[in-house]
Write a structure and sequence with these properties.
Elements (H helix, E strand, L loop, with lengths): L17 H34 L16 H29 L7 E8 L2 E5 L5 E3 L1 E5 L4 E7 L4 E5 L4 E5 L5 E5 L5 E7 L11 E7 L1 H10 L6 H11 L2 H5 L17 E3 L5 E3 L2 H9 L22 H13 L13
Parallel strand pairs: 1-5, 4-10
Antiparallel strand pairs: 1-2, 2-3, 5-8, 6-7, 6-9, 9-10, 11-12
Bound molecules: heme C and copper (II) ion (CU).
The site of copper (II) ion (CU) has 6 residues, from loops.
Length: 323
């Protein structure tokens, strides 16, 4: 199980998701189409160059006549064929950007030169990612320093991971096994060592793995503790002194802004609210929240965001799940 199977050909790793098989089929189809469209041109070129070479006695009369039907056909047919690939690829691309709502969310922090993964239950791992088979997994990713890119060859997906930004990548593996993961963006001297393994497990084996690596606190619970220690709760939890918006039910909803308009409270927004509170001020509140930029470690930030997310479903003003 520990061994990474390079597949029958190392440059063409196994495809372990429906998306991956789709990409392979698309690539094979595109190559076939390109060959079908260019081969006749080159075959005729070589053949004519030989047949009509200088000094050979052949019939050179009867130059080209217009044949509108033929000309239309050779423009229209390739156009339709190529358009078909456009629609196919666009759909696959769209799919890639629409993770299912019930996906298992795992947070990823990239840094020079390692990948850190955190499961919702609080389990953490480095350069190794355990995921269940047959379940959509959504990675929400950010970088602690420079731009990285998380690449899973066997899943045929790759996405840049940027500092100060949250980017996503999702997949649903349909075969158990161990496969490579790489950083695919040159990020410094040890870039080539920034790699690891993705371990796809049967659902029961994944449950066992989670149990065996049980963390003392879930991500959101750690976030709740940080919410206190960073002093957020002082303002945000029913303070009589400071007027700050309660964070219950905020996540995932549109928030009215003082500058007019709305913004959807996603991970990026919550992050930005903590690091750049003056950037988007909630309508009806004074801009008194201090910036926490440079004061909060990336991992703490992920946990705080997880906590604010968990408040989306909380229905009262107590800190839920606080130890
Ligand atoms: C000094 C009081 C104060 C502290 C401390 C504070 N906040 Fe705020 N926070 C506010 C106020 C006031 C607003 C609304 C105005 C604004 O958007 O800047 C706000 C807005 C927010 C929002 C956007 C809320 C919405 O409804 O869209 C989030 C998220 C947030 N804070 C999280 C935090 C976190 C996490 C911490 C701790 C790291 C924290 N705040 C610390 C006062 C505070
Ligand atoms: Cu990197």
């Amino acid at each position: 199980m520990d061994h990474i199977d390079p597949g029958w050909f190392a440059f063409w790793p196994a495809a372990i998701s429906r998306h991956a098989s789709d990409v392979d089929l698309m690539l094979a189809g595109l190559v076939a189409l390109c060959v079908a469209l260019t081969a006749p041109v080159f075959v005729l070129m070589v053949w004519f160059a030989h047949k009509y070479r200088s000094g050979v006695d052949v019939d050179r009369s009867g130059g080209p006549k217009r044949n509108l039907r033929l000309e239309t056909a050779w423009a229209a047919i390739p156009f339709v064929l190529v358009l078909f690939f456009y629609v196919w690829a666009a759909r696959a691309y769209w799919d890639l950007h629409e993770p299912p709502a019930d996906a298992l969310e795992i947070s990823v922090i990239a840094k020079q030169w390692m990948w850190k993964f955190q499961h919702p239950g609080g389990q953490r791992e480095i350069n190794e990612l355990h995921v269940p088979l047959g379940r959509a997994v959504k990675l929400s990713m950010t970088s602690q320093d420079v731009i990285h890119s998380l690449f899973f060859p066997s899943l045929r997906i790759k996405q840049d991971v940027l500092p100060e930004r949250v980017s996503y990548e999702w997949f649903e593996a349909d075969q158990p096994g161990v496969h490579h993961l790489f950083c695919a963006e040159f990020c410094g001297t040890s870039h080539s060592k920034m790699r690891g393994r993705i371990v796809v497990l049967e659902p029961e084996a994944y449950a066992d793995w989670l149990a065996a690596n049980e963390a003392d606190l879930t991500l959101a619970r750690r976030g709740a503790a940080l919410f206190r220690s960073y002093g957020c709760s002082g303002c945000h939890m029913n303070s009589d002194v400071v007027r700050a918006p309660p964070l219950y039910g905020v996540y995932g909803r549109p928030v009215p802004l003082a500058s007019g308009g709305f913004v959807t409270a996603d991970e990026q927004y919550v992050r930005d609210s903590i690091l750049m509170p003056l950037d988007k001020v909630v309508a009806g509140y004074r801009p008194i929240m201090p910036s926490f930029a440079g004061r909060i470690a990336e991992e703490d930030l992920v946990q705080l965001v997880a906590y604010v997310k968990s408040l989306a479903t909380a229905d009262d003003y107590r800190l839920p799940d606080t130890p």
